[in-house]
Design goal:
This protein is mostly helical. The chain has one domain. The protein is about 85% helix and about 0% strand. It has helices at about 5-30, 30-35, 40-70, 75-100. Helix 1 (about 5-30) runs antiparallel to helix 3, helix 1 (about 5-30) packs across helix 4 (about 75-100) and helix 3 (about 40-70) crosses helix 4 (about 75-100).
Amino acid sequence: MNKKILLRTLLSTFLATVYIFLISQLMTNGEQLFGNANSAIGPFVVLLLFSLSAAVVGGLVFGESVLLLIKGRYSQGIISAVYSVAWLGLYTFLGLLTMFIIGR
């Protein structure tokens, strides 16, 4: 197990999780922040935000894996991708567990 890859994927997926949380808060409180967005611009901005989020989270989660693959370090790139998905799975599980505990 490569500790350097493990820690880097932990950090990058943590940052992705923080970003996702911040965007979820923006979407939850969007009407309070921006008013009623029933105009034509509302759906446009939501799709722009969705596209931006896909790029940001994709870069944070798989950026290192892609760089390692480009450098020819195929096994490390695959390990990095697996670690990233595993960390996201752990964060998702912890989020679901938190919702379950708070919801009771």
